[in-house]
Amino acid sequence: MSTWAVCNQKGGVGKTTTAISIASLLAEKGRKTLLIDLDPHASASVYLVGREDDANAGVMRWFSAELDGSAASLPAAAFAAACEETKQPDLSLARATPALAALERRAAGREGFGRVLTTAIARLGARFDDVIIDCPPTLGLLMINALAAAQQVLIPVQTEHLALEGLARMSRTLEMVERSQRRAIPRIVIPTLFDRRTRASLLALERLREEYASVLWPEPVPIDTRLRDAARAGLPPPLYDPAGRAVGVYRRLVDRLIGAAEAG
Amino acid sequence: MSTWAVCNQKGGVGKTTTAISIASLLAEKGRKTLLIDLDPHASASVYLVGREDDANAGVMRWFSAELDGSAASLPAAAFAAACEETKQPDLSLARATPALAALERRAAGREGFGRVLTTAIARLGARFDDVIIDCPPTLGLLMINALAAAQQVLIPVQTEHLALEGLARMSRTLEMVERSQRRAIPRIVIPTLFDRRTRASLLALERLREEYASVLWPEPVPIDTRLRDAARAGLPPPLYDPAGRAVGVYRRLVDRLIGAAEAG
Ligand SMILES: Nc1ncnc2c1ncn2[C@@H]1O[C@H](COP(=O)(O)OP(=O)(O)OP(=O)(O)O)[C@@H](O)[C@H]1O
Ligand SMILES: Nc1ncnc2c1ncn2[C@@H]1O[C@H](COP(=O)(O)OP(=O)(O)OP(=O)(O)O)[C@@H](O)[C@H]1O
Ligand SMILES: [Mg+2]
Ligand SMILES: [Mg+2]
Question: Which of A2, A256, B108, B131 could form a disulfide with A105 if both were Cys (CB 3.0 to 4.6 A apart)?
Fold first, then answer.
């Protein structure tokens, strides 16, 4: 089983769009794929399955079990119960709820909360081939959980100035987690929302190619309004616009991710 | 003294751009203006004054004083010491540092952390005419502080589908804070990143006009690449592109904010 986290502390850079696109392309290949939504804002959950009123649904179920001390005795089937089907075969979702926003405060001072996700994914066992984690735009317990659970981190970066500043901070966060876990976390920086007509985009891509050459995905994901139409239709971009340019970039990225995972 | 908070839990909708533009336009009119950056990601701080290595600089100084119990005995001058000058006359900044990200955990279980900002602003007294607060894209202690301190909330919303879903959640958050403070918090929803060439933008604006008619600012802020160029130049949009279309929308908004504040 491979686990990828899609993170960036900067908001609105295309994390959710990237996570849903990659998860959908993996499922299309017949791989049993789980998308975990760790953002209390629940963009990916609302996009794929709509709102949910049970505050304890999905991912929160795993954290609640840790909060009330029942995690160790929970059977594997109870971990799987947090996952639901989506409209696409082979694509499941562990949804987010706003209750996740209170976790930082509720878990303060208690040990062991950084690895709740790692444990839950391990308990899911062979039910899934691939796991993709969509992160919230903040450094905190939820992102630490995602980084601890992931074998590789995908960092979407909008190709413009303010977002580039954010990338330097994201790199420092990753280095902090690598030191505390005594392991390297391989990363791929994915240029997104690229608009080849504007100087701001071109200059930002140039700077990315200079400063992050060794980890940069060579093709930027272009700005493509069909991605927004896909979100309104509640369909993952590969189902809504299979021959689109942005989906094409994601398709080649997924081929590389699978190749590396199988070689790993 | 008027205090406005610029918030939205959804990331990348134009909060920082809106906060900097409004603060700069207020300063241009000769009003002594303070921009408070509450985002641990520090976009506004890096934009206006660049990086800072002292983790305890700026806003963190106010929260540290509350954490170590020295806030009540701190002289007003020590509160003012958290504010620094920017390149624009009459525009000061209380910067953010990444240390703010740990506050939720460090303040957990302790009373009175929701009003640190309200107290700090009161202690600044007559040094400033206006205060603008740029919020992080998450529901938590920092946003609660901003909402508690503000007389009015400005909510930038990107004119597209995923961001509209986020607005419903932001409204629920505001109602929660209003109930706990037993006061109404007037709000203005500001449509941003409007691209009149795309269906996604037009449909989103139509929906905003239907569902939020009574609080919606009538003119959307258009997508304008000169705002990105301004960010790269480290200059607030009104200084970089005074006659621009996006700046024009912000200018009319500021006239209304001042008018309402003086009438209020
Ligand atoms: N390549 C693209 N072309 C056009 N629009 C895009 C593209 N990628 C993302 N978007 C749009 O940009 C907006 C931000 O994307 P998204 O919500 O995926 O970012 P995010 O990083 O997950 O945001 P948050 O920080 O709130 O979690 C959304 O409206 C999305 O539809
Ligand atoms: N009207 C506009 N036209 C073009 N670009 C814009 C406009 N408003 C904002 N932007 C750009 O969109 C990106 C997101 O804006 P900004 O950083 O202000 O959003 P935010 O809501 O503060 O994000 P975060 O959630 O990370 O705090 C930035 O690159 C900014 O330069
Ligand atoms: Mg997202
Ligand atoms: Mg911001």
Answer: B108
Ligand 2 pocket residue status of B228, Cβ below 6 Å: yes
Rounded to whole angstroms, how far apart are CA atoms A75 and A73? 6
The tokens of A101 are what? 């926003």
A109 → closest Cβ in B108, B136, B161? B108
- Rounded CA-CA distance A111/A26 in Å is 35
User: In this structure, what token pair is assigned to residue A179?
Assistant: 């030191």
pLDDT tens string B233-245:
999 999 999 999 9
Spatial separation of the C-alpha atoms in residues A112 and A46, rounded to whole Å: 29
Position B63, amino acid:
F
Taking contacts as CB-CB distances below 8 angstroms, the residues of chain B near A21 are: none
pLDDT digits (tens, 9 = 90+) for A20-62: 999 999 999 999 999 999 999 899 999 999 888 888 899 999 9
Query: Which amino acid makes up residue B115?
Result: R
| Chain B nearest CA to A108, separation (Å) | 5
How far apart, in whole angstroms, are the C-alpha atoms of residue A222 and residue A220? Answer: 6
Q: How many CB atoms lie within 10 A of CB A263?
A: 6
